[in-house]
Design brief:
The protein has helices at residues 10-23, 27-38, 62-73, 82-87; strands at residues 74-75, 79-80. It is mostly helical. The protein has a two-stranded antiparallel ribbon with strand order 1-2. Helix 1 (10-23) packs across helix 2 (27-38). The longest helix has 14 residues, at 10-23. The radius of gyration is 21 Å and the shape is elongated. The N and C termini lie far apart (53 Å).
């Protein structure tokens, strides 16, 4: 196992201390867990969304066009774009 030393501003360090106390874990465990979660592999491009097919829209052919619609209208960071809203009259 390796050791890493970092410098944090006082506000971040206090936030870490409080979070570790609330979760009843050590600072080391909290930071290690956070880093492990952050470094998890991200979904690959073209991977299907997990919620596809869970409901009914009443629009024919929607399920066969879902990848195309979402690729134009959905952004993981920006949310639903204007083209998505126009398609669904939102």
């Amino acid at each position: 196992m390796s050791t890493l030393q970092i410098q944090l501003d006082d506000e971040l360090m206090e936030h870490l201390r409080q979070t570790a106390q609330v979760q009843a874990v050590s600072l080391e465990t909290l930071v290690r867990t956070a880093l492990e979660a952050y470094l998890q592999p991200q979904p690959r491009a073209g991977q299907r969304y997990s919620f596809i097919g869970i409901g009914r829209s009443g629009k024919p052919g929607l399920s066969s066009q879902v990848e195309e619609i979402l690729s134009v209208g959905a952004s993981r960071r920006g949310g639903w774009g204007s083209s998505f809203r126009l398609y669904f009259n939102m």
